[in-house]
Design brief:
Blueprint: H1 8-14, E1 16-26, H2 27-41, E2 45-49, E3 53-57, E4 61-82, E5 85-107, E6 111-133, E7 135-138, E8 141-144, E9 158-161, E10 165-168, H3 175-200, H4 202-214, E11 217-221, E12 234-245, E13 248-258, E14 276-283, H5 286-295, E15 302-303, H6 312-315, H7 318-321, E16 339-344, E17 349-353, E18 358-372, E19 376-395, E20 398-403, E21 408-415, H8 428-445, E22 447-452, E23 462-471, E24 474-482
Length: 484
Amino acid sequence: MIGVVCAWSTLAAEFDTQEAFYLYMNRAGLNLSAKELQQQFLGDINSAPLPDFDEKGWGGIRAQGRGLSYTVDFGDLKIVPAKDRLELSLDVNFVRVHLNSVRFSKKLLVEISSTCENTAIEVNGPVKVGAHIGLSVNNGTVQLTTPNLSFPLPEDKYKVDGPSKCSGVLGVGHIIKLVVKEALKRSRATIEKKIVEQASKLAPQLQQQLNQAVIRDIPFEVEKFIPFQDASPVLRTSPHHVRIDSRGMEFVMNVNVARDGLPQDEAPAWFDAAATSVGQAGVNPQLFGELLGKVVPVGAWIGLEEELVPGVQEAMKIEHAAAIWPDLRQIRVTKNYLRPMIRFAGAPEFSVIADEALVRVKIPLEMLFQIHQNGWKNYYTFKLDLDLTTSLNIDAEKLGVALKPQTVLNLSGEWAEGYVPQESYVESEVAEVVFLSLFDVLYAKGNLLKVDVPRVPFGGASVSLSSPHVVAPYIRVGLEASGS
């Protein structure tokens, strides 16, 4: 891994890139979001108690109700994208008000009564609770507008069930139906308020869910293209802006370098359908160049020592290197190998070739070679302007950028300041062949770099990456959700 060779405090303070990551959630992704919200935060209401009642009416008949409760069965929750908003829709399958017993009594010469048991009134649905939710990005977080919810129980969708039995001498006839209807009317405000309370929980939970998706910590890993010291920078994403239309919702995210990692919430895996495309994630490849330009200081020489690059002394033996610099055959050295050093002459530049789904990388490098004459002395510097073409792949849940065998190398060189060669001729063509052979080795190795793509904790599903492609300015990968 290319390591960080500058101080973390300096890096964290300086590095901040806008619009570096992209996340798109289609309708299927929002459906997963709705299912997770419903499973975790929206429970049916089962036999919630209501106050007993004692009223007189209906021709002087007194009704005393005991054991009054209500049940609400929620149906599907849907989150549907529309222009500049999300539409939340919750089905209420039915509302049932149950009365354990009601005693009817009337005083004539003596009091006569009847008691009926297990009577209910049921409002059949589905009846929808709906709201429009607007989204915005403020201070690096996603904010949702608070929906104004209401749920009036319809008066034309009910039926009376029961009673299961009545005992006594007072004939109540159809009065029992009037009584339970009145019980529903008295309870209407309580039931409507509770349903709205349940539905109102969903918006803040959706806001939290979205922020968990777009505020993520991502390890940045680069293959050992050049063996700098090891370190592990962590990129923290935050939302830059959000767009919504009828197809889905997309976020563009900023990136900065995090000092400490965020805790990553793991949603429970319950989604058991076949693999489903839920959206796309993407990274702007300019991020790679900007990050490398920060974590590997431009102009800082790195010595390629034997412990860092095993075999370098054998490769840099004077007898081999003399094929490039004939001058080495005529001078006296006190070590029989050259010491190579390397540095970025400028920050690497990454860009996309959208038509061919390729990534172009330009890397300005310099390699300094030193000879040992009772101490290391600068000998010769090569300037290597590399123009690399890379392809995209998915490798072990990471987005890989692999080198293609189309390397363009512009090579120039000069003798170190103060060194006067005895033989000034340099075999530049031999040097070019040597360097290009190095890139043949890198091509055979595989990925030039790898970077994690942020996982989206939606719907409790296991999210995997697929189908890397280019939609300028982003390298994108598909997101597929499947069961664990």
